[in-house]
Write a structure and sequence with these properties.
Layout (H helix, E strand, L loop, with lengths): L22 E5 L4 E8 L13 E7 L1 H11 L4 E3 L7 H12 L16 E8 L5 E6 L13 H5 L1 E6 L4 H14 L2 E4 L9 H6 L3 E5 H8 L4 H8 L6 E5 L5 E5 L2 E8 L12 H14 L4 H18 L5 H10 L17
Parallel strand pairs: 1-4, 1-7, 2-5, 7-8, 8-9, 9-10
Antiparallel strand pairs: 2-3, 5-6, 10-11, 11-12
The chain binds adenosine-5'-triphosphate and magnesium ion.
Length: 335
């Protein structure tokens, strides 16, 4: 008799960290202050426009990922550079409010967080981003101490502070700490080596296609695979994502996104990364990590807020059969 497949779980398993590890996820890359200005429609040049609403948010590839992971209940720390200016203080307060440890973040007068002013046209939802990234940003070249890097289950990096990212990724690799990364910029002499040290490489389709020259996300995921990695994931917004991992590395597997009425997809990729890192620290298999990451990102797309664990669990209870592990799907693989 054939047994029916067990339904996918909707409760997130309790974190069980190996004894002695201080953190589950330690992040070193970009932390940012985003000032969003909402206008009725995006203006042509030389116009005077009334701002309908303004919101200040903390973001950044690593910053938002850490908040997403912390809201899912894992122990997170940010140890990239923070300054003494008002925006750095705002980011520091936000991390503290979210339970993200900043005791190992170097506080230097010359350091800055990224500051973006984002003008959103409410009629179309389209936006332009004006960003400032002066000062020392992202990972510090020599801090935190190597012991701190060894004392986490997952190291999270992005493309800011590449000499520091390289040092930290080497330390993590030699200590068996999993390196998870998001990149949006391949410039500079360190990118290639840092890329080679990433265990879990999660990139947007646009960037993955750009650095591989491949025509689609599945082919780009395959091109980024190398045996030293644990997984490559290329995300495609509402079209889900493609993954490559051992032992099936001749084909990329498709993972559907949860179909939701999206109102704000800004930062969905960051939430996906943070949830993936959180569930990796919990020891979950790839298919479940991706399903949970897609669920957290879908809730972000729907409600505009980075969801807490109870909200993701409720969403999964309401949507149990969507985004099921790709093993349960047939015909999605590509050669
Ligand atoms: N409209 C949407 N509906 C449902 N899920 C979505 C939607 N947009 C994104 N997601 C989920 O979030 C994941 C990551 O999204 P996406 O590929 O847009 O990231 P990104 O390009 O890095 O975006 P960003 O960096 O701006 O956050 C997708 O694979 C999908 O699971
Ligand atoms: Mg992204």
């Amino acid at each position: 008799m054939t047994r029916a497949a067990a339904p996918p779980s909707t409760a997130l398993a309790t974190v069980e960290s190996p004894v002695g590890k201080r953190f589950d996820v330690l992040g070193l890359g970009c932390a940012a202050v985003d000032d969003l200005l909402y206008v009725s429609s995006f203006p042509a040049a030389d116009k005077k426009v009334r701002v309908a609403r303004s919101v200040r948010r903390c973001g950044g590839l690593t910053g938002a990922a850490l908040v997403a992971a912390a809201r899912l209940g894992v122990r997170c720390a940010y140890a990239g550079c923070l300054g003494t200016d008002e925006q750095s203080q705002h980011v520091a307060r936000n991390f503290s409010d979210e339970g993200v440890d900043i005791s190992f973040a170097p506080r230097l007068p010359e350091a800055r967080v990224v500051h973006s002013t984002i003008v959103v046209g409410q009629d179309s939802g389209s936006r332009n981003i004006f960003y400032e990234d002066d000062g020392m940003i992202g990972a510090h070249p020599t801090l935190p101490e190597e012991d701190v890097i060894r004392d986490t289950q997952v190291l999270f990096i992005d493309h800011l502070g590449m000499p520091g990212n390289l040092r930290a990724a080497r330390t993590a690799r030699s200590a068996g700490v999993a390196v998870v990364a998001d990149f949006e910029d391949e410039a500079g002499p360190f990118f290639k080596e840092v890329l080679s040290l990433v265990d879990h490489l999660i990139l947007s389709e646009e960037f993955a296609r750009r650095i591989t020259g491949q025509p689609d996300a599945a082919q780009a995921a395959l091109a980024l695979w190398q045996p030293a990695r644990a997984a490559v994931v290329v995300t495609c917004g509402a079209n889900g994502c493609w993954s490559v991992s051992a032992p099936t590395t001749v084909a990329a597997r498709h993972h559907a996104a949860f179909p939701v009425p999206a109102t704000d997809t800004t930062g969905c990729g960051d939430v996906f990364h943070g949830a993936y890192a959180a569930r990796l620290a919990c020891g979950e298999p790839l298919e479940e990590r991706i399903r949970l990451a897609a669920a957290a990102a879908a809730v972000k797309a729907m409600h505009g807020q980075i969801p807490r664990r109870s909200v993701v669990e409720a969403f999964l209870r309401a949507n149990p059969h969507v985004g099921t592990p790709p093993a349960a799907r047939v015909g999605n693989d590509v050669a």
